[in-house]
Amino acid sequence: MIVIAENEVDLKSLRGKNTLFLLKVAEGSLAAGGRGGGFGERRVVAVFAFRYEEGVCEKIFETAEEGTVSKFEVPYYVTRMPMTMSDGAESVGYGVVDPELVAVFAHNAR
């Protein structure tokens, strides 16, 4: 999963406001080879979106339909990104904090 977030990801407090798009990339032999950041093939196969605001979290979008998924591309500048999990543990995954890209994805999710 690749995380595209409006703000830094803190799932412990859920304070403030954040929108997260989770991009599931194709699995297989090409998914970890050849390109920077550890991603070879960057074909998105499913998209999930969540919004949280002042402690309330809700799923706002989900699709695996090829025609819709094709509107979402993994940005070339994805890097390792620290995140705080709901139990307070720190985790590092792949993603980017980019409010403008989140706005584009939100428009594509309509």
List its traits.
110 residues; mainly beta; 6 strands
Q: Enumerate the strands of the largest sheet in spatial order, edge to edge or round the barrel.
A: 4-3-2-1-6-5
Number of domains: 1
Helix percentage: 10-25%
Order of helices and strands: EEEEHEEH
> Helical stretch count?
2
Distance between the termini: 21 Å
Helix/strand-derived class? mainly beta
* Number of E strands: 6
Mean pLDDT across residues: 88
Query: Sheet with the most strands?
Result: 6 strands, mixed
Percent of residues in beta strands: 35-45%
**Poorly predicted tracts of residues:** 29-35
Q: Using the CA coordinates, give the radius of gyration.
A: 14 Å
Task: Estimate the global geometry from the Cα principal axes.
Answer: globular
Describe the structure.
With 110 residues, the chain is mainly beta. The protein has one domain (2-108). The protein has two helices and six strands; from the N terminus they run E-E-E-E-H-E-E-H. A six-stranded mixed beta sheet has the order 4-3-2-1-6-5. A hairpin with a 5-residue loop joins strand 5 (79-84) and strand 6. It is globular, with a radius of gyration of 14 Å. It starts with a strand and ends with a helix.
Describe the structure concisely for a colleague.
With 110 residues, the protein is mainly beta. It contains two helices and six strands, in the order E-E-E-E-H-E-E-H. The chain has helices spanning 66-69, 99-108, and strands at residues 2-5, 17-25, 44-53, 56-63, 79-84, 90-97.
